[in-house]
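Incident log, structure service

09:12 report received: a user says their structure output differs between two submissions of the same chain.
09:20 pulled the input from the user's history:
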Amino acid sequence: MLHDFMVALFALAAGFTASGIVANLYRMLVKKAEGVAARLGYYAVMVIAGPSVLIDNAGRSWRKKSCSATAFWLAAAISSYWSFAIGLFVLEIALSLRPH
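09:34 re-ran on a clean worker, output below:
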């Protein structure tokens, strides 16, 4: 049971790490998304970068007192679940690439 819990935590961390890397790369490479193709690219990137962006925006709003604690923790829970799903995908890719 402890092994399963550790794998779940590792998947959560791997997903949030992948999300942060993609979000920061996008911020460095793209200043403003203009045009239809740029918007479609933005939405495609946000599939992976979403958890990092969501928790960042929620944290800023909570510090400015523009959202409630319930809204912040709901965003944190959604971000965690989303990161976990991305992390499972990352782990699946890593396991399929390892030598047998």
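09:41 both user submissions now match this output. Likely a transient worker issue. Closing.
09:42 reviewer note: The radius of gyration is 16 Å. DSSP finds three helices and no strands in the chain.
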